[in-house]
Structures are given as C-alpha cells and as structure tokens.
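Format notes (please read before filing issues)

Several people have asked whether sequences and structure tokens are stored in separate files. They are not. Every record keeps both together, in the order shown below: the sequence lines, then the token lines. Line labels are part of the format and must not be stripped during preprocessing.
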Amino acid sequence: MVVCDYSMWRIFMRLFSYRGITLIAAFAFVVGGVLVWLNYYFIEDLLHEYVEGSVTSEPPVIVEMTEGETGPEFLVQRIFFGTDRAIEDETFVGPVFGYESADALSVGYRDVTIPSSVHEIGEIELPRRYSVFSVVLYQEAEDPERHFTIHETKVLDEAAFLYEAGLAAAEATTYDGSAFVFIHGFNTTFRAASFRAAQLAYDLSFDGPAFLYSWPSVGAKMDYVTDIDSAENAAPHMDEFLDLVFRVDGVDRVHIIAHSMGNEALAELLKRAGTKLDARTDKPVDQMVLAAPDLDARQFRTIADRFMRVAKGVTIYAASTDLALLASKSLRKDYMRLGDVGDTGPVVVPGIDSIDVSAVGTELFSLNHNIYARNRGVLDDLGRLFMTGTRPPHVRMPTLRAETNADGTYWRMPN
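Then the structure lines:
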C-alpha cells in the first residue's frame, strides 16, 4: 500500500512539474482549438435558430393574432415575396419554405411582427433558443411584443399578387411610387430573409411595397458551394419575379438591394441573354445597391456594363471587415472579392459609386455580414439614395469623404 501511495505521489509530482504543466497547457490549447473550430463550423450552425431561425423549419408564432392586428408594442410589416424554394411543411400561419429547389416560382406575402417598443436599429430581436446536436436545452416562447415573429404567410396567384402589391403602393406617401427588392445572401433561411427584409423596411421607414426574392440557400456555413449553385440556378425565376414587380400599379421606381451571394444570382441573371429583363430597353431599375457583394472583383469589371445597362445608378457597399467575404476569398486562393476593401481601397469601376463602410462598426468575433443593415449612417444613405437618387454620394450624405486610388474616386463612411 505504501508503494502504491509513493507511486501515485511520483505521478502527481511529475504532472505538476514544469514539464508536466507545459504538456497539460499544450494539450488544453489543442483541445481548445478543436472546440473553437467545432463551434465555428458545426455548433454555431446547430445554434443557428438563435440568430436566424432553424435551418430547415420555421417555428410558428406562439401568440395567435387576427389578421391586420397591431398591438401597442408591435406592428405588422408586410413583405411581398418570390421564391423558388420548395414548400416543406404547412403550419397555422401558412406554408414553410425549405432549402430544396422547386424549380418554379412561388409568390405571395409574409406578415412579420416587429416589436416596435424594444426594437433597435438594424437588429432582429428573436427569442432565445439554445440547442446542441438537436437537443433543445432552453426555448423561450415567442412574443410579438419582444420578438420578430411570423404573423401570416400566404401564397398567391399572379393576379392576386399584383393586386395586393398595388394596394400597398397606393398607400405610400414618403416613398410614393417606389418599391425595393431585397435579394438575400449566403447562409440564409427563408425565415431569416423575411425578417431581414422586414427590418430594412421598418428601419428605413419605407412605406411603399417591400419585396423579397429568396433563393434556396441551405442556411448553414458548411454549404457554401451548394449555395452558389442554388443562387445561379435561381436566375430564371428571379427574372420572372422582377418582371412582376415592374408591373405593379403605382410603382414607378424599383430599387434592388442584393446582399452577399445574392449578387451571384443577380449577376447570373444579367449575364443571360433572352431574359425578360434583357428585353427591356429602358432602365427598369432605379437604384441598384450591391451590399458586400460576393463576386470576383476582376470578373466584375468585365460585366459591370450589364449592371449599369439596367439601372440608373449602381452603388457598392464594401467592407474590409466582412468575415464571410474573407472566407470566400480564402476559398479562391485569396482572389479579391468585389465587396472587400484592399490596401488601396475598394474596387472602383467608372460609372459605379463605391463606398467603403468598414468603419461603421465591426464585431471581432461574430460573422459580421450584415454591417450595412446595422448602422444608422448606411441606412440613412440608403434612404436618401432611394428617395432622391442624388449623386455623387457626398452630395446626398455630406459625412461621406471622397478619396482616390489608382482607379478613380471612391467614398469612405466615417465611424
């Protein structure tokens, strides 16, 4: 027994010797690194519903409301949508769109509740939900007075869609005659996209019809390549949807905001011949905003004229701090992405306004991929751009600073 105790003592002393502590620290460092990697690539996706909603499902609102109801602490924002996602389920608030492609266009509207009394600019307030490997550890009940929730989702035929959107256009005063179309990016569920579109409309005080095109993103960071294919395959359905938007009574100016990989879908549409958009000889889009565009910077120079041909004005919001773009660039041997900002500034193309928004606020440890939607300065610039179309940018937004690089003039948004 004494020998055993002595042996255990020697093992204990070796563990806590200088060499032993070093080995323990090294082991802990390796394990910690593995856990961080798992958290970034897997666990964060499993917890994805806390930020953007479940990857494949859309939990219905807990509190049922009658149509059109607006409480003292929340309001209902209607978003008109088009999507080539397949319906994967039905709930009492309407159909649930998943990540599989239907290879056909569906249109309709989704009513989203916004907790007006607690809402902060650029945020999407959601109930806390913690789960690991599909095991729910904690689920907070949805409350329209504290969270974004889904009030109703309804699929419409073409005639009903045009009628309902026309009614919304007729009620606009501040943005009379205007509509915007939001095209979401990588790693975005239909639920998340509809919440983001609703947040943009609300924070912009946009009282015209707000539209969303949602292509079949899986809604997980590990499915980047799958998302690229889905974005490109959505082009013909997006063409059909935009043609509907252009036909809405009372809408004279259509603006497009394409975010992240949504620009891949838009670029694919613009590169194709024989589309409904290509057949329009006028410039059907008033303002086209490319927010953190996930496009090859060099290739864009060869197709930039396609964007300018269909839009009266094209604006790029670029950020050196966009982590998703940095990851995208690393997959392509560090080729610069259009939404990135290099050492000499953002990509500058004649006829297009490039604005560096890197300084408006970054979060070092988060996937900082909606920087354009989380800053009042950028939202103010968007609102003024949609309302007036004034150029160059510093004329509509005096806080923007004009700077130059070898390719020309760009603008920088201060902190």
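For reference, the curators noted about this record: The longest strand covers residues 94-114. DSSP finds 13 helices and 15 strands in the chain.
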